[in-house]
Design goal:
single chain, about 400 residues, alpha/beta, Aldehyde Dehydrogenase, Chain A, domain 1, Aldehyde Dehydrogenase, Chain A, domain 2, five-stranded parallel β-sheet, 10 helices, 19 strands, binds nicotinamide-adenine-dinucleotide
């Protein structure tokens, strides 16, 4: 999909890491045991596979997102059917072939994980198919709302990983030698096409000038071009449509009163290459509240940390967030219940580049799903509560008498 070679290798490493994680997890699908209120009874929870898991994935992580879902779903005992993005069918075929070899070597049926390349209508068929117990969909909020509607109309289960509008707060106690590279990687990595891309920068008013100066210097060093050339930091956008959306976001930003500190645009080379933008904006701008899947960074200033957190939480999306500060009072407020409302909250690292060991996902219009590490496996199984009576009596719960 055009991400830089380094980032692409990272994505494949993520797939390898999740294989290791899933292998260990397969021995740790633990249930709880609890004490029964009745004599000579015991209670426990056990977890069973759901059956078939449908995976609908986005173009921007063409292999990792599938692996987060499929490998966990498989060790939980499910079968999977994967519909990748219509924009990245070949990496899906490559993954399917690698998996087929592994299954063959281990004498497992190839059909436990299937691939179906197709467009949105194929995704809709998956959403509407009663045989598919769980639909795990990654993509835009628009798509997620359609999937949720279709799956819930048949009372199926869904797991949604949707759009983000992620912010970094830079306080007056930030170490700028950490802040600047963190922001640059977050804003231009994968050409701004990560769900966790840093889109908003909320900077303490005393730091604005220094931050802008640091970003200008860093952006001047960015190399944009063929992603297979390891010297390049940024490859192209996914297609010409993405370029048009980027250019109209720049125009909309200017129209709303944004001040373009760095005005990017289409590069004069073949392909969908663009240069990144940075704009001084206000939190209420419509364009700032949208997810534009391109390298455009909106800077806003704040006076008080409570105000910064309010700005950060004021958008509809709730995926990833960060604070850059060496002050414990600030970082702890950010992590408290009065702090970030996102599924991911980081301190002194950026919004993107999550590790697979944690549960990944976001709140609000990001969809509320959790994938990958921690106990995210529970979404791929059904919980069964078991009560066993080993006495020769039949006492009822809550002391109910029913003598016949
Ligand atoms: P998209 O919504 O256009 O497409 C995603 C997938 O959904 C594709 O496979 C597509 O064919 C399918 N699809 C589209 N409409 C559908 C429908 N009505 N029913 C069923 N399937 C349908 O998204 P995209 O442009 O490929 O990816 C970018 C978006 O994905 C961004 O919003 C990004 O933030 C999001 N994303 C989120 C995460 C996350 O983990 N939260 C990860 C990666 C990408």
């Amino acid at each position: 999909m055009g991400k830089s070679y380094q980032e692409a290798k990272g994505e494949v490493q993520e797939m390898i890491d999740i294989c290791d994680f899933a292998t260990g997890l397969s021995r740790q699908l633990y249930g709880l045991s609890m004490h029964s209120e009745r004599p000579a009874h015991r209670m426990l929870e056990q977890w069973h596979p759901l059956g078939i898991v449908g995976i609908i994935s986005a173009f921007n992580f063409p292999v990792a997102v599938w692996s987060w879902n499929a490998l966990i779903a498989l060790v939980c005992g499910n079968c999977c059917i994967w519909k990748p993005s219509e924009k990245t069918p070949l990496s899906a075929i490559a993954c399917q072939k690698i998996l087929a070899e592994v299954l063959k070597k281990n004498h497992l049926p190839e059909g436990i994980s299937s691939l179906v390349n197709g467009y949105a209508d194929t995704g809709q068929k998956i959403s509407n198919d009663k045989r598919i117990a769980l639909v795990s969909a990654t993509g835009s909020t628009r798509m997620g709302k359609e999937v949720a509607k279709a799956v819930s109309s048949r009372l199926g289960k869904y797991l949604l990983e949707l759009g983000g509008n992620n912010a970094i707060i830079i306080t007056q106690n930030a170490d700028l030698s950490i802040a600047i590279p963190t922001v640059v990687f977050g804003a231009v990595g994968t050409a701004g096409q990560r769900c966790t891309t840093t889109r908003r920068l909320i900077v303490h008013q005393s730091m604005i000038d220094k931050v802008i100066e640091g970003l200008k210097k860093a952006y001047a060093q960015l190399k944009i071009g063929n992603p297979l050339d390891e010297k390049n930091h940024m490859g192209p956008l996914i297609d010409q449509d993405a370029v048009s959306k980027y250019l109209s976001a720049i125009e909309k930003c200017k129209k709303e009163g944004g001040n373009l500190i760095l005005e990017g645009g289409k590069l004069d080379i073949p392909g969908s290459y663009v240069s990144p933008s940075i704009a001084m904006t206000e939190p209420h701008f419509e364009i700032v509240r949208e997810e534009t899947f391109a390298p455009i960074l909106y800077i806003m200033s704040y006076a008080d940390l409570h105000q910064a957190i309010q700005i950060q939480n004021s958008v509809n999306q709730g995926l990833s967030s960060s604070i850059i500060s060496n002050n414990m009072r600030e970082t702890e407020l950010f992590l408290s219940a009065k702090g970030s409302d996102c599924g991911i909250a980081n301190v002194n690292i950026g919004t993107s580049g999550a590790e697979i060991g944690g549960a990944f996902g976001g709140e609000k219009e990001t969809g509320g799903g959790r994938e990958s590490g921690s106990d995210a496996w529970k979404a791929y199984m059904r919980r069964q509560t078991v009560t066993i009576n080993y006495s020769d009596e039949i006492p009822l719960a809550q002391g109910v008498e029913f003598n016949v």
